[in-house]
Amino acid sequence: MSEARLSASVEASSLMRRAQAEGGFAAVLHKGDSDRGSIILVVRGRGAYVACLERALDLDGAYRWAVAGPPQDAAEEVADFLARRVKFDPDSWLIELDVAQPERFIAETTSPG
């Protein structure tokens, strides 16, 4: 049985406020369906691309954050990856976060519990 989850708009707003509260920058690159849209985060540190994270349903029916998209050394591929994702699923949310400690932010976001 799957667990209840926040709507996409509430979770997107929460992630953006979290980044801003830590002194970072947050912007909506593409606004998806407010209730059921998937969320992809583009995480940057001081403007440099670090990773993309995606909220996905796992085999247990729970939502987890996982690293997705191009690796850190392929930053030039990010725009193409995001364009393909929106074309495949126009209900997706694309959120860009520029945070001071991107590795810590990613670890905290993707850790279970």
- Counting H and I runs of at least 4 residues, what is the number of helices? 3
| Structural category | alpha+beta
Rg, nearest Å: 13 Å
Number-wise, the strands total: 5
Strand content: 25-35%
Note poorly predicted spans: none
Architecture, according to CATH? Answer: 3-Layer(aba) Sandwich
Protein name: DUF1491 family protein
Pfam families: DUF1491
Secondary structure layout plus pairing:
Blueprint: H1 8-21, E1 25-30, E2 39-45, E3 48-57, E4 63-68, H2 78-88, E5 93-98, H3 102-110
Parallel strand pairs: 2-5
Antiparallel strand pairs: 1-5, 2-3, 3-4
Structure description:
The protein has a five-stranded mixed sheet with strand order 1-5-2-3-4, with helices on both faces. The longest helix is centred in the first third of the chain and has 14 residues. The protein has a single domain, classed as Protein of unknown function (DUF1491) (hypothetical protein tt1805, 3-Layer(aba) Sandwich). The model has no long low-confidence stretch (mean pLDDT 88). The chain contains three helices and five strands. It starts with 7 loop residues before the first helix and ends with a helix. It has 113 residues and is of the alpha+beta class. This is DUF1491 family protein. It holds the Pfam family DUF1491. It comes from Sphingomonas anseongensis. InterPro entries: DUF1491.
Short characterization:
This protein is of the alpha+beta class and 113 residues long. The protein has helices spanning 8-21, 78-88, 102-110, and strands at residues 25-30, 39-45, 48-57, 63-68, 93-98.
